[in-house]
Amino acid sequence: MHDCGHVAEDSTDENSPKEVDLIKIENIAAREKETAILIPEVFNIYREKLTAIAITSDDMEPTISKNAIILCNDFGFVGSGIYAVKINGVYSVKRISLKNTESYIMACDNKLYETFEVAINDERLEIVGLVRVAINIL
Predict the structure, then answer these.
(1) How far apart are the C-alpha atoms of 9 and 85, rounded to whole Å?
(2) Is the dihedral of CA 94, 48, 27, 119 positive or negative?
(3) Tell me, what CATH number does 85's domain have?
(4) For 129, left (φ over 0), alpha (ψ -120 to 50), or beta?
(5) Which of 12, 73, 108, 114 shows the smallest number of beta carbons within 10 Å?
(6) What is the Cα–Cα distance from 109 to 63, expressed in whole angstroms?
(7) Is 1 inside any structural domain?
(8) How many other β-carbons are positioned within 10 Å of the β-carbon of residue 2?
(9) pLDDT tens-digit series, residues 48-102
(10) The domain containing residue 12 runs over which residues?
(11) Which region is the signal sequence (predicted)?
């Protein structure tokens, strides 16, 4: 067993749940080990590249629910996908694609929000990383 503990995971055989070892991932909002979240050890190979972010908006519902926790890498933009972004100092999640060599298209899965365009060199935009895992809290 590893120092962070383990959790029983659902199994197809009710009599034999399997244990999943856990590792800690830093929370981007606080950047402190005390606020780290525990995730399955299978992600250990990405440990130094993953950051946890608590989502507080509904702009990506139904794909990512409000109050979900996402894990994103820190590689920046690597092609179309769902990304954690920081716009005007506020963290959120957007579906991003490249419009041309000068701008990104930012879209929300929630149809109540409009798609918009942002210049690649806009100083108000920081692409935190590609979302690798979304933990939807019901």
Answers:
(1) 31
(2) negative
(3) 2.10.109.10
(4) left
(5) 12
(6) 7
(7) no
(8) 10
(9) 778 888 888 899 999 999 888 888 888 889 999 999 999 998 889 999 999 999 9
(10) 6-135
(11) none
